[in-house]
Amino acid sequence: MRLLHTSDWHLGRSFHRVSLLRAQRDFLDHLVRTVREHAVDAVLVAGDVYDRAVPPLAAVELFDQALHRLAELGVPTVMISGNHDSARRLGVGAGLIERAGIHLRTDPAACGTPVILADDHGDVALYGLPYLEPALVRDELAAERAGHTAVLEAAMERVRADLAARPAGTRSVVLAHAFVAGGAASDSERDITVGGVAAVPADVFRGVDYTALGHLHGSQAITDRIRYSGSPLAYSFSEADHRKTMWLVDLDGVGTVTAERIDCPVPRPLARIRGRLDDLLRDPGLERHEDAWVEATLTDAVRPDEPMARLARRFPHTLSLVFEPDRAPEDPLASYAQRLSGRTDRQIAEDFVAHVRGGLGPDEGERTVLTAALDSVRLADVTGEVAR
């Protein structure tokens, strides 16, 4: 059976205020062509279909067009909700849409209920695990503890129980939206940390022939059987070095996996350039970036006059301008962005408490309150409701 694994479309997202709607439409055109030209048997979409819980109308229209085109091909599509999606909104009409071969899996309670497809070698069971927010699904899944690992393990227990009751030789595929240990993140994924822990071990998906992951935007293989497709488009300059692809996965009669990367269209390359403004404007080696979307980091000791206008004359698609004057690392004027780089929201909040209290950080009770407040804000993003 041939599967096309994609994820993280983020329909409705822009890139530094530049609309990506046309690029997203071009990607979906490419997706449909790939399904047709490579004789794909099923399409897997591993979450973050939209960029936010309440997407703009243009994004909804584009998604509607994509569903119609996939249904017209007669190729089954299995799709789960991600942490950016509103599961309830995405799942509206799922029962009716399923009649057209589009299987929306947004309900955590249905984790153990697969879509069954068949080929010459027998059945393939495809299980859709939507993004599982621990605070919302722990009780429903009867997870032993709070946290991503516990709720995913509980969901996978349902998958393995269902699979064990099926005929011997039934092959299995799981779609999941999670941060799996060993994966390489970028700056454009929304933090899903709960209590400081977000990554789950790859062993959670043991016993499955193929796991199609979403969430991380770089295409990568955790193991031969566990892969991220990555996003089809770059959504931050941290993805400048990414090769944007989908996975074309072949599952043979005994569950052996072979996979090939299918490149996605690139609307415009990304470039990150760094140096003194005058040097950037003169350097002949930067000519190849003159048509790219550019993030320029200026290292001038004194901020130059009209830097964006001057950069735009050579690099007309400059979208981001960062100032990082060359200074000693211990310089107290080092940039705010540098001081925050690599730190979690909780660490930043705790550092702020220590700063305003003369170095005295939060105690355990205060840490609990801070963590609850941050989790409440994140849950509001997931549910689309205002946190109280």
Plain-language structure description:
With 388 residues, the chain is α/β, with parallel strands linked by helices. The chain folds into three domains: 2-263, Metallo-dependent phosphatases (Purple Acid Phosphatase, chain A, domain 2); 269-335; 343-388. It has helices at 21-37, 57-73, 87-90, 94-98, 134-141, 148-164, 277-282, 307-314, 336-340, 345-356, 364-383; strands spanning 2-6, 14-15, 18-19, 42-46, 77-80, 102-105, 115-119, 122-129, 171-177, 210-214, 220-223, 226-228, 245-251, 257-263, 270-275, 293-298, 318-323. The protein starts with a strand and ends in a 5-residue tail after the last helix. Pfam families: Metallophos, SbcD_C.
Q: Mind sketching the topology for me?
A:
Blueprint lengths: L1 E5 L7 E2 L2 E2 L1 H17 L4 E5 L10 H17 L3 E4 L6 H4 L3 H5 L3 E4 L9 E5 L2 E8 L4 H8 L6 H17 L6 E7 L32 E5 L5 E4 L2 E3 L16 E7 L5 E7 L6 E6 L1 H6 L10 E6 L8 H8 L3 E6 L12 H5 L4 H12 L7 H20 L5
Parallel strand pairs: 1-4, 4-5, 5-6, 8-9, 9-10, 10-12, 15-16, 16-17
Antiparallel strand pairs: 1-13, 2-3, 7-8, 11-12, 13-14
Describe the structure using short key phrases.
exonuclease, 388 residues, 22% strand, hydrolase, Purple Acid Phosphatase, chain A, domain 2, 17 strands, 3 domains, 6-stranded mixed β-sheet, alpha/beta, DNA_Repair-Maintenance_Comp
Q: How many structural units, i.e. domains?
A: 3
For the record, the CATH class of the largest domain is: Alpha Beta
User: Within the largest sheet, what's the order of strands?
Assistant: 6-5-4-1-13-14
Secondary structure tally: strands: 17
What's the helical proportion of residues? 25-40%
Q: Identify low-pLDDT runs.
A: none
The number of helical runs is: 11
> Helix and strand succession?
EEEHEHEHHEEEHHEEEEEEEHEHEHHH
Overall body shape = globular
Measured between the Cα atoms of the first and last residue, the distance is 48 Å
Chain oligomer state: single chain
- Structural class, please? alpha/beta
CATH architecture classification of the largest domain: 4-Layer Sandwich
The percentage of residues in β strands lies in 15-25%
Mean pLDDT across the residues is 91
CATH topology of the largest domain: Purple Acid Phosphatase, chain A, domain 2
Largest sheet: 6 strands, mixed
CATH H-level superfamily title of the largest domain: Metallo-dependent phosphatases
Rg on CA atoms, Å: 23 Å
